[in-house]
Design a protein that fits this description.
- By secondary structure, the protein is mainly alpha-helical.
- It has a single domain, classed as DnaA protein, C-terminal DNA-binding domain (Chromosomal Replication Initiator Protein Dnaa, Chain: A, Orthogonal Bundle).
- It contains 6 helices and no strands.
- Helix 1 runs antiparallel to helix 3 and helix 3 crosses helix 6.
Length: about 110
């Protein structure tokens, strides 16, 4: 019974992550596949990192689970995304505002 509850919780968190990805893609003007794809062009890359950081912050998914939702990335990629999003927020008012808006949207989806 406890195992089923844990699995059910994980499924809900993955669904939440996918809704956040969809909302983040829409916010930045991308297709959802861009957020989980492999393109490394700017500003898409930074926007993907911001959405990844928000997913990790708002959900209870592990680093590995978060990476998996983003197209099979590993935990190190998620850590790097969090670092890059944090740095961008520290240097740019625009990035800080974008991150805060995505986070607010994500919290409403929760």
């Amino acid at each position: 019974m406890i195992q089923k509850q844990i699995e059910s919780s994980r499924v809900r968190q993955v669904k939440l992550a996918r809704r956040i990805i969809k909302a983040g893609a829409r916010f930045f003007g991308y297709d959802e596949r861009d957020m989980t794809g492999t393109a490394r062009v700017q500003p898409l890359c930074l926007h993907r990192q911001m959405v990844m950081a928000v997913v990790k912050e708002v959900s209870t998914l592990t680093l590995a689970e978060t990476g998996n939702v983003f197209g099979g990335r590993d935990h190190g990629t998620v850590l790097h995304a969090i670092k890059m999003a944090t740095n961008a927020r520290a240097v740019s008012k625009e990035s800080r505002g974008d991150y805060d808006l995505i986070r607010a949207i994500a919290l409403k989806l929760k």
